[in-house]
Amino acid sequence: MAQITATFDSGLSETFPAGVAAGEALARAGSPDFPLVAALVDNEVMSLDWILKGDCRISPVLANSSAGALVYRRSLCFLLAIASREVFPERRLIAGMAIGTGFYHYYADERPLSGEEVDALAGKMRSLSELDVPIHLEIWQWEKACSYFAGSGQRDTLALLEGTNQARIHLNECAGFRDLRIAPLVRSTGVLGTWELLPYHGGMLLRYPHKDNPLSLEPFEDVPLLYRISEEYKERGRVLGVGAVGALNRVYASGGIKEYIMVAEALQNKKIAAIAESIAAASSSVRVVLIAGPSSSGKTTTSKKLALQLKVLGLEPIPIELDDFFIDRAKTPLDTEGKPNFESIEALDVAYLNELLLRLFAGEEVEMPNYNFKLGARDGNGEKLKLSGREILILEGIHGLNDALTPRVPRESKFKIYVSALTQMNLDDHNRISTTDYRLLRRMVRDYNFRGHSAGATLGMWPSVQRGEREYIFPFQNSADAAFNSALDYELGVLKVFADPLLRTIKPTMPEYAEARRIQAFLDNFTPIPSQLVPKDSILREFIGDSDFHY
Length: 551
Prior knowledge:
With 551 residues, the protein is an alpha+beta fold. The chain is 37% helix and 20% strand. The protein contains 15 helices and 25 strands. A 5-stranded mixed sheet has the order 2-1-7-4-5. A 5-stranded parallel sheet has the order 16-21-15-22-25. A hairpin with a 3-residue loop joins β8 and β9. The longest helix is centred in the middle third of the chain and has 25 residues, at 257-281.
């Protein structure tokens, strides 16, 4: 019998018969402290039932890792889909966006769920978990898979399959239920013991543990702002007629993508115009607009488009560069690794900013600061500024929603806008698209186009970026007066053209390889869309280039 050699993290190697499952091989590595949810085989995340066919390096993927947390959460959504098919076989379950540490789910018929119905679903999920039902990989012929999903009413999954010409389709099977295998899941339902299902706005919230404490749930903290965005997005989906990737691919195949893009852009511009009207209506008291959002959410282009709409309404927007209010570099606070923390609010001269704002509001002429990044200090080359009546200041930066940035400015004088790319478009009914992946792909393409960074460098710094967002942005999002969703559902087809060759430069020996392969597999579901179809004033141009706006 043919043999293979598997090398563990410890450096030790073991010999196994060819065809051994990854989970069986990892059993030789000992018992981990946290749930084992997948395997890292030659630096790529695989399910524990993945068959090892040759010599390899293999490591456990645990629930307390970033990769493991993704596997656990996807598996919970699969568990809910199984329960839904058994409890409400005639209803079509839709997975929605993340709200806090949970995924919002609802039914396509939009009939509100009662507390008793949510309890019934939770009971079925708990029963399946206690039974520890195996989750199997099945490989079907393309035509058989299409026939199955057509018969089971999973039309978005069928549409997704129509966009591929793969002869063999990988499915997950558990308790007679089947779904596409988009990415690895846990080996059996018994692993899924930590979760909560709550009634939420007529649907339900499937809550999951944070990766730092995968065996318990954090207290629930609602984010009403995200739910409002979710409802707006559903309405936008009705107008566009596209709620999943397969439907978008069909639009492209039918020749309708140009009109689709025009309508998507028009809807987004309409939202910006509505926010501008809200600001204008309060212009007797509002003196400054504060715009904040996570990395690559399109804040800069949003602020420029908003400025145009404010001019249409007779106001004179004036941008204020928060970067000019950095303190001297030598005084910048340090992070936990002893490096300068430029994202900390203490890196800004908040007192000086507030002094200038109040003087401007009082009608004084002030000299705005100019930060010289070569010197690491402000110089005296700032412009003179005086407000005469119709001006309104626009400050864009990560701390905009935090009142600690503008403590001396009265609340009624501020209008706060939260900007992020918050898609609700799914791969299919049960497989959602992470809003974080939207922003990561934007960041990767922009970093390469305008900053000379490799895809590996962007992926390597992304966890640090996310930590900053959790500390400095997300805690303040509910204080926003308006929210702007910068996601354009067609954009992933465009970004694929730019990102795919960048991801291919990340090789199996590099630490970012597992994440690169995950994103590549995700992008494989999209039909490429030529960038020539993107309007020159689109937010997407901030990342791919050739914009009408100057950055």
